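user: Please review this fold.
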Amino acid sequence: MKFRKKPVVIEAFQYDGDLKASDGQYYVPQWAIEAIKSGVMYYDSLDREPCELFIKTLEGNHHVSVGDYIIQGIQGELYPCKPDIFEQTYEKVGE
């Protein structure tokens, strides 16, 4: 059998290697800030460069590479997505 993905609007942003501007202020969505504060998204070590970003998911911890999209799913779950897959799967619907 074949199936089609239901049209669902998600929120996402493309990870550029940081979550804060040079002034120390976050420039990502509020749900991402909350995920950092709660430990759902975390850096492996802030003591060394480069520090790596991870997301805790039901399937385990997933590494986020620079350029990956971080998606908030329909139930509030977070997960990374490679840019090529993201662009084939999603289209912009507005702000």
About this structure: The first helix runs from residue 30 to 38.
